[in-house]
Design brief:
binds NADP nicotinamide-adenine-dinucleotide phosphate, 12 helices, 2 domains, two-stranded parallel ribbon, about 15% strand, Rossmann fold, 9 strands, alpha/beta, 7-stranded parallel beta sheet, about 280 residues, single chain, UDP-galactose 4-epimerase, domain 1, globular
């Protein structure tokens, strides 16, 4: 059996490889990377490295040769639909028998700036006829790091998402789930909603207080005040607008998912919010 992980020099791909090595022989693992120099440590671990880009079909053709099971990590927004089409088409051509694809929480029921590409890709994979599991990832807790670090200084955790909930979990936990599904060692449904316990920003502020032993309260701001607050934390306007866009989709309830899938895939409980914060913020 051969297992190929795309996005192998990225955060999620790196974690997935770490866990996959515990589940299958390293000699059967292939990493797809864009930049071979970034993959030096993967090679040192005995992982076969192949170079390819979602935008370059010839490179994918070569990279997918002889691959049985594929962990397809979504690329960056931009030209994603064309790039993802290349990946699925070349996987089909190469005879890949299974794809685990990192999708978006509740992808078929929401419509936002991130979900469209994931809906598109899920449909592509379905139409390809390749056996699959959609890993519908909720939000990485790590995404909140700038707001959390600012809160540790100011005592206020800013958001603009009202009392909507998010299913935060650690990136390494999404990586572990992806590796377990890719390994094929357990039966998995074709869709898994990988969401942590739903929490509001108020609850996140409470967990940060506990984790840091500092008094921290949540501050729900209107859009303009949120932009000003984030810029005041040193982020440029474009980044502040990007974060506001995410706050809007959270406020709309797009990351509200109640599911036990994550812990069922992992076979153990998720890290608590408080412990997750200690881990990512070194508290
Ligand atoms: N659920 C969430 O909270 C959340 C948040 C952010 C992003 N995401 C999505 O989840 C994915 C994985 O997250 P991450 O944190 O691991 O992101 P990351 O660290 O940016 O890693 C993305 C990986 O994809 C590779 N990649 C990007 N475009 C590619 C292309 N055209 N061809 C081949 N490889 C390509 C990158 O290669 P290089 O190493 O060469 O750059 C990198 O290895 C992201 O790409 C994004 O689609 C999810």
């Amino acid at each position: 059996m051969t297992y190929l992980v795309t996005g192998a020099t990225g955060g999620l791909g790196g974690y997935a490889l770490e866990y996959l090595k515990k589940l299958v022989p390293t000699s059967e693992i292939i990493a797809l990377v864009r930049n071979e120099e970034k993959a030096a440590t993967l090679k040192e671990q005995g992982i076969t490295v192949r170079v390819g880009d979602y935008g370059d079909t010839e490179s994918l053709k070569a990279a997918f040769t002889g691959v049985d099971r594929l962990l397809f990590i979504s690329g960056a927004p931009g030209n994603r639909q064309a790039e993802h089409s290349n990946v699925v088409n070349e996987a089909k051509e190469a005879g890949v028998s299974f794809i685990a694809y990192t999708s978006f929480a509740n992808a078929n029921n929401v419509d936002n700036m991130l979900s469209t590409d994931h809906q598109f890709t899920e449909q592509l994979i379905e139409r390809s006829g390749i056996d699959h599991t959609f890993l519908r990832n909720n939000w990485y807790l790590e995404n909140e790091t700038p707001l959390l670090k600012a809160a540790l200084h100011s005592g206020e955790l800013d958001s603009s998402a009202g009392d909507a909930t998010v299913g935060w979990a650690l990136k390494r936990e999404y990586g572990e789930a992806a590796a377990r599904v890719l390994s094929g060692q357990q039966d998995n449904p074709s869709i898994v909603e990988l969401s942590g316990q739903p929490h509001t920003y108020t609850q996140l502020a409470e967990a940060l207080s506990q984790a840091s032993s500092k008094a921290i309260t949540a501050r729900d701001l209107d859009d303009q005040a949120f932009i000003e607050a984030v810029k005041g934390q040193g982020l440029p306007e474009s980044a502040a607008n990007g974060i506001l866009g995410i706050q809007h989709l959270i406020k709309a309830g797009d990351l509200v998912v109640e599911s036990k899938d994550f812990e069922e895939v992992l076979g153990h409980p998720l890290t608590s919010l408080e412990d997750g914060l200690k881990e990512i913020l070194d508290l």
